[in-house]
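Title: Prediction job returns without error message
Component: structure pipeline
Severity: low
Priority: P3
Assignee: unassigned

Description:
Job completed but the reporter wants confirmation the result is attached to the right record. Sequence as submitted:
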Amino acid sequence: MKKLFRWLMYVALYVMGVSCFIIVTIMINQMIFQSIGKIAWWIHAIETILLLLMGWGLAYFINRFYQHETPDSLFKNWQIRPTLFALGYVVLLLASTITYDALRKLFGLPEAIPENQRILMHVMTQIPFQLTLEAAILAPIIEELLFRGTLYRVATEKLRQPLYFVPLSACLFALLHAWPNSLDFVIYAVMGAILAQCYLHTRQLKYSILSHIINNGIVLLLMWQAVN
């Protein structure tokens, strides 16, 4: 129960921390822009450094929680075969998104950008550097620590069945990104299941982090093109 409470606490800190930072940063930037008509590069730099410190600090404490029982080096001892598996899971992630869009068209549903990505596209016009850092690097690391690494250990301790880990991880990951009554929930659940399977396959969190970073990086590039 104690581990479950700590996990929930870290999820709440992550969601509230990122949300508050983005809202406050946008409000401050709008006030500065209205006052002097522009936002200096050093203001973006300070905001990016603050975001990095906040995200890295949270990741540090979550990683300590994750590493408590079984050490798992996140940035060392890379191997070729698991890395290739991770790249293969990136293909699955991209294929799931393409399939989702194709099915929407097949059934006559309007082509829609997930609400989560629509919000990110709006934020991208306000704080582009900060969003890139958060979505491409910090979010994959923290979300894999939360929804794959620590969740696996909490779930297997409570449920005694690793089989339940994939659907549990998928649903909780989707809840972070979409409302459960929306179609977007389905695609995020599929992506969560793919990343959970990547972790189960390699048994090392760094490879699911790699898959997540590459996938988010590709999505960000596409969003940059759409915004510009």
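Comment from assignee: result matches the submitted record. The two ends are 48 Å apart (CA to CA).
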